[in-house]
Amino acid sequence: MQGGKTREADAAVGIRWLAVNDTPEAEEAMQEFVPTSYIKTVDPGDGIVGVDEPTPMMGYNYILTAGKHVPDETVYEIVKLLHENPEKVRGILTAFADFEPASMAPTYPGLSYHPGGISYYTEAGLVE
Question: Domain limits at 111?
Answer without folding.
Answer: 62-128
